[in-house]
């Protein structure tokens, strides 16, 4: 960014205010500037880009990027922007899919209001997975490794074109009005485009993560409310969590269930957008409109049904009072649980039984669900222990007798799957490597090192650092941090400092000073996290503590 060349931009920094944009930006030759705007022009003579937005937007949706960017059109109203080294991969992954997804969304929720639906892929150090800036979605390039997660993330950001961008939550305390509705809309789109079974599998992965979070934090933690009140000491970043997305999704699914027919509810959402477009709303606006739209439900006092009261949904802690029926995904989910049960028995499973499960033919979400559920049971039972020679060990990993006693079960898992996982995407690899760390499986530690040297995004670093610190491998984590810190985003670097050195400023690197730790600092736009070992303390501290709020990647 060349901020000295960008005009001053003065606005009310409040989600409630919607503003009109007209902004010039000048950069050196060879760089391109993009902005979340509906109109743009470029003067080659003075290298000035001019942007304007014809629709009112809240300030958090104003975004600008500059770099060596090129583009390819992938549809009549969409193009992909990326650095030259990434462009062909991005185009191949998305192809004509964006226009298809837009068409499905328009059939469900009405016209797409923003004209353009372009996507720019940002470097791996970009601190969040994706951001739904109108006309120009930002997505981290790392997600290109996984076609299924890329699909979900892009569709989720497209859904924000209706829910969040067109109709915006009036306060940060009700983020679920954006994220819960967008998650519901995303799953309606994937159901129409890819079938109910695929959507149910993805939903199970996310709801598993929600319940995992509740086990860590406790059912009475106030962060699990849909309406979290801002009080002194409450960090707004704690609201970007799985509850905002998944508990919000469950409430919207409950409203759909009350309506009696999913198509009837689609019509409601379409009319809701038409009624409130380019406005900011509160939860009561949505609920009141719902009850007016379905007067028979208002007459039946559905908002007061025992155990499912709308007020309980908004202000109650704990799990969602209702979850949608996901049995349509049984054919995809069932084999995953069967394989988990084989490995969780405590001894190495029978090889003939394992041969019936071909993970190379599974989808990414199936493999992710398998590893997530195995992580829930880590450290695994040791079964019959054996010694494994520990060769070529770094000083931080070397034990006195150069031998390690490892779990027979973990050794068998590695022998059977680690080579397969090496060839799969980062979403799979990080979960396998978390198992390696949580089970203190030193033979696969080189894979952890290689992964953290390759990946510098928040979603692929923080979970591994947390697990390394929570176990006996903190010295390994510190060593890797000092080797890679120069390539990390400043926010991520501070987060890792807090994980590695929680009670004092980080010691200065011998070759590079480490920025000081800022007490209470947190990454913008990304869920806060803590090691599993400190989860209980975080739960006890409530909203004033950082909390482990990421078990799956979360898009904006």
Automatic annotation (TrEMBL):
Cofactor: binding comment: Binds 1 zinc ion per subunit.
Protein's name in the database: Arginyl aminopeptidase like 1
Naturally occurring in which organism (per UniProt): Fundulus heteroclitus
Family affiliation: Belongs to the peptidase M1 family.
Cofactor requirement: Zn(2+)
Residue ranges, annotated region (Disordered): 506-532
Domain Peptidase M1 leukotriene A4 hydrolase/aminopeptidase C-terminal: 331-500
Signal peptide as annotated in the record: none
Example of a GO MF term: metalloaminopeptidase activity
Pfam families: Leuk-A4-hydro_C (PF09127), Peptidase_M1 (PF01433)
